[in-house]
Amino acid sequence: MREANEKKKGRVAENVEMSVSIQPLGDRALVIDWGGGIAVDTHQRIRAFCTWLNKRQRPEVIEIIPAYTTVTVIYDPMKIIGMQGSYRLSYQLDQDIAHARLSPYQHMKKWMEELLISMEHMDVGESRVVDIPVCYGGEYGPDLELVAAHAGLSVEEVIDLHRNQDYLVHMVGFAPGFPYLGGLSERLEVPRRSTPRASIAPGSVGIGGKQTGVYPISTPGGWNLIGRTPRRLFRPESLTPSLLQMGDIVRFRPITVEQYAEWTEEEL
Amino acid sequence: MSLTIMKPGLLTTVQDLGRDGYQQQGVIVSGAMDRYALRMANLLTGNTQGMAALEVTMWGPAIQFEQASLVAICGAPFEPRINGRIVPLWRPVWVRAGEILEFGACSSGARAYLAVAGGVDVPLVLGSRSTYLRAQIGGHEGRALLAGDVLPIGEPSSLAASYMANIEPELTASPFTAASWFIGELNRPAYHEEPLVRFVRGREYHQFTEASKEAFSSHRFRVSSQSDRMGYRLEGPEIQMDNRVELLSSAVVFGTVQVPPQGSPIILMADRQTVGGYPRIAQVASVDLPILAQVRPGDWIRFDEITLEEAEQMYTLAEQLMRRLECAIGLYLKQGGL
């Protein structure tokens, strides 16, 4: 993730590649796909695009959902078809994009293409660094020794490798506030447990295959648990319920059992 | 103003049109499974379409009304009763204070919606009153309703209040009185044990084998017992890809049909996760989601391919019809007659 740091203030300067594809996802959503695999470059483009789109709040956009290489836009077709008191089936569109007789999908696709072209040189801004205190091992990390044995490392080496790394939040999903993190050391890759746990405590930090992450709410799960954070990753009372946002950098910091017990959530 | 849950039923939850705008933070949409029935029940009680109501599943609850209420029940025919008499569906019903509405089981379909004038007034969480069971937020204490729960009811709209004031003096002698006007059968989805569900091609449609694509549109699929508000697992011919490629997770929506490696499709429903990593063979047309919401485990589904343009036009027509019904209901409520 060193690359991510260097690009923290990165600009998306390249021309809009025409390899970007736009496809429908049913009759109320479309997917913009930058293609390829998980890459910091693609991530920066997606961040830039979301920022660009969010700045242009339009009534037909219900929400946008960024992922590793895609942005999905959910829209309201009825807002696009200007009803204006008539019940005609012809598609009446906004004045500012006067592409007459486009279907709702065609209208959205056209607009997305225009946005992609106009967002060149978009500044995505600085990444926020979020500190996640973790009490490693013991009661909170029942699989830490198993991970160490599998990796052929000592418990201390596992903790050092896990903490001395910047992790990029590629996307949030699966569960509310659950970050898909990039940057786990290859030496810490450990297969998921063959039998998933029926319930995992909120705040549990785990490793599953090439991924590491934190469980925000109690769910079943198959990752190896190496520690637990007292920080709440999902805060439904807040307008930004997910502590971590796409584009954030996560740093894990070891704390003791006592520090875990004394942790008080900071005021927001 | 409140109502009290006397018996909870199989799964009774508070739902509205869902929690939009937070999927990029991993918060699922939730909301009513059958949005048509929810919207209609709300309109019939003078509410706006998206107010919170009770979603009743398979085996319904018993509910006591603290005060005289204007209610409407839309969706599956549960044969709800007050004082032993059947309460008709798809129309406004005035209920006397203290009466108990008992749902029982439904003869077809799976879900019904009970709207009350004023709406179920539980606190808003992230812009919605829908119950998100897994995260334990929204609705009533983030969970399915239990016996003894007391739910606050909001202030009825001026339309509902004037309608009630108009009809009430004549009614206090009987436990409930139903309006003589109602949503006709032509404007109600026909619940079926083997519905035909229209779909447009999913993003990975072309990567499935010819035989699988053919089987998907020509065979019927059984809705497995492992089906719930999150999704329906289907049993039927195995659906396979030409070359199985690992996909990166990306967004899924209501009605996305994804196929895990073992070849049994899953239709994602109201409580779906925000993202998924399985290939998507199809996307159910929005206009048919209310029909899909009413199938039950053991029912069969057939899929029929349509073009995106057709799906868009059907959706548009359905929404325009909804607006006309909204106007008509408003006029009837304003006139004040039973």
From TrEMBL, chain A:
Keywords associated with the record: ATP-binding, Hydrolase, Nucleotide-binding
Family annotation (Pfam families): CT_C_D
Keyword ATP-binding: yes
GO molecular function: ATP binding; hydrolase activity
Carboxyltransferase domain ranges (all copies): 20-244
Source taxon at top rank: Bacteria
Cited PANTHER family: 5-OXOPROLINASE SUBUNIT B (PTHR34698:SF2)
Name this protein carries in UniProt: Inhibitor of KinA
The species this protein was found in: Paenibacillus aquistagni
Phylogenetic placement of the source organism: Bacteria, Bacillati, Bacillota, Bacilli, Bacillales
From TrEMBL, chain B:
Presence of the UniProt keyword Mitochondrion in the record: no
Keyword terms: ATP-binding, Hydrolase, Nucleotide-binding
SMART domains for the chain: AHS2
Annotated Gene3D superfamilies: Cyclophilin-like
Keyword Flavoprotein: no
GO molecular function terms noted in the UniProt entry: ATP binding; hydrolase activity
Residue intervals of the Carboxyltransferase domain: 24-321
InterPro entries listed in its UniProt record: CT_A_B, Cyclophilin-like_dom_sf, PxpC
PANTHER family linked: 5-OXOPROLINASE SUBUNIT C (PTHR43309:SF5)
NCBIfam families the UniProt entry points to: urea_amlyse_rel
Protein name per UniProt: Antagonist of KipI
Lineage: Bacteria, Bacillati, Bacillota, Bacilli, Bacillales
